[in-house]
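Lab manual, section 2.4: Encoding a predicted structure.

Procedure: take the sequence of the chain (192 residues), apply the prediction step described in section 2.3, and record the output as structure tokens. A sample record is shown.
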Amino acid sequence: MNWVKMPNNTTHKPLTPAMEDYLEAIFNLAKEKRVVRVKNIAERLGVKMPTVTNMLKTLRKKELIEYEKYEYLELTNKGSAVGIEIDRRHNILRNFLADILKINAKTANEEACRMEHGISHATMHRFIEFMDFLQSSSRDKLVCLHDFERYLQKNEIRGNYSDRLRELPDASKERKERIQKQEKKSDDPQQD
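Recorded output:
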């Protein structure tokens, strides 16, 4: 969650997920169009124009946008920094979901939108490191990704997620018992 620094350098309330969504939408619209208007934001977010106007007033009070009624709007430097960060998190999460976990693009985009608001900077950094690690040119890592794809295809045949989730605790118990048996064998001097 992003905390906003106010002009007197005190930390103000964190931005809500809705505020972050607006800032991300404004940021992306500004990249696509010369000017951003209330109508554009309403269309992008699927909300009514009065709802957008109310949020813009809030964002203006937090000095994240420059906006006058019936005019186009712009992100301030502070608002732009938040928009860039939210967009960056969204893209990283979407790419992870789509490219690594092989979730379809539409679902990956929707899930990334929900996830981007609650993930800490430390966890996001770890996501980036993990993706860099997996997508580096090492043959073993690429084989691992290919094996994961085959694993997913095989498990699609085995049934749905709910059924497999119910099986998981039993599978973990069996694995634990196997490990304990192996440890006993290695500790038993008569086995040598």
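Check your result against the sample. Residues 91-139 form one domain.
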